[in-house]
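Example 333, ligand ISE.
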Amino acid sequence: MPNARIGIIGTGIMGSDHARILAAGIAGAELAGVQDASRERAEALARETGARAFADPLALISDPGIDAIMVCSPDATHHVLALAAIAAGKPVLVEKPLASTVAEARDVIAAETEHGKRLVQVGFMRRFDPGYRAMKAELKGDRLGQALFLHCIHRNAIGPDYLTSDLVISSSAGHEFDIARFLLDDEIVAATVTSPRASRLAPGRKPQFIVLESADGIVVDIEAFVDCGYGYDVRAELVCEKGTISLNPSPTTSLRHAGHDGYETPPDWRGRFRDAYRAQMEAWVASLSGKPNEGASAWDGYRAIRVTEACLEASRSGGKVAVPLEDKPAFYA
Ligand code: ISE
């Protein structure tokens, strides 16, 4: 079986990271093309990895030398490029979020369903993180009993300037919406959102405190704070009837040195989720030759956006906003 030739659209932080993972060697795949709105940036990555640089994303998608696509361009372009990949009949891994609005996400679902074969995976890489997977496996057994609470902490060292208070919900907390659905095997049905005052170190952006309720009666709380200053820190604790299970900090060692005792904290998500990104890539590449995987589907991407929209409305109104339950279409079963 020849290697799948992968083309990456968007060579910013995530596109470059995926390109380097591929270029370092993933069985069954090779990096064949890269494209970015900045031609120089795409050409620099092409030189580094040996891929071809493309000037236009649609030319990359339709090129006969590209078999599958990763969309890592700015969020607002995701759904249009996902639709173009579906129209070309090529598998596509879209960085989260799948789209910017519920209506756009519905268009992707309609196009994929009409095409008749699943082509879209959403890059919710936490589904491949060994810690979250162990929590999910534990919950499937009966040692802990049923889940009651899921407590989540999502802290970044310093958010980029473009990250608004709303984007803290859609871009950062969006990961928590998906992982809560994945871990609990449940749907979110209601959301409330409150914010503390902004940190004086990032006055233009409010941290967010989100409370979600699941269809089965589990409460999920999320602190999303992208300006904590000290590093990238993601935590989760599941509280069940007979005990709890939590993520451990990701480093494998703890250091005592020069008045310091504890874990090193990575500067951003690439270090914290390195294993997850690689496992996600391996699983996606394996899926190109027909192997099923637990990656997020377009339906999962759509449900995360429904929760996002409810949270944005709750944040504006100060009230509780319902997220309507929907039957999962048979196409995504
Ligand atoms: C970013 O886009 C990510 O996906 C990171 O995982 C998240 O922690 C960060 O807050 C987002 O802006």
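Summary: The mean pLDDT is 97.
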